[in-house]
Description:
With about 120 residues, this protein is mainly alpha-helical. The chain is globular, with a radius of gyration of 15 Å. Helix content is about 70%, strand content about 0%. The model has no long low-confidence stretch (mean pLDDT about 90).
Amino acid sequence: MxxxxxxxxxxxxxxxxxxxxxxxxxxxxxxxxxxxxxxxxALEIAVDRTLDAAVxxxxxxxxxxxxxxxxxxxxxxxxxxxxxVWSHLCLGCHYHQYEIGPTRDQVRAWQAEVDExxxxxxx
Length: 123
């Protein structure tokens, strides 16, 4: 069975829908975490496509390794920004009983950063 391919742009729209809260039956915290996960995945897709275009097969390594390699194939500032927001999104995606999830404002800031980075990384 084939699965539909999701693009970075579709994931950015999903994050926006989750943050707007339209017709979603989840709690605000659940929507914020869901949006963070969609944003992280969109960024990872953009990084994968950038690295795969430069060196086929490089996108098959771990995301941490990809973030380190990214500076060799894009502007150093772009690579630093991608690594920083990816790290924040990783923390925002994970549930810990003793922590409050990310706020809507935090996720909106990450959304703006990921939106810009996807534009820089994808042709």
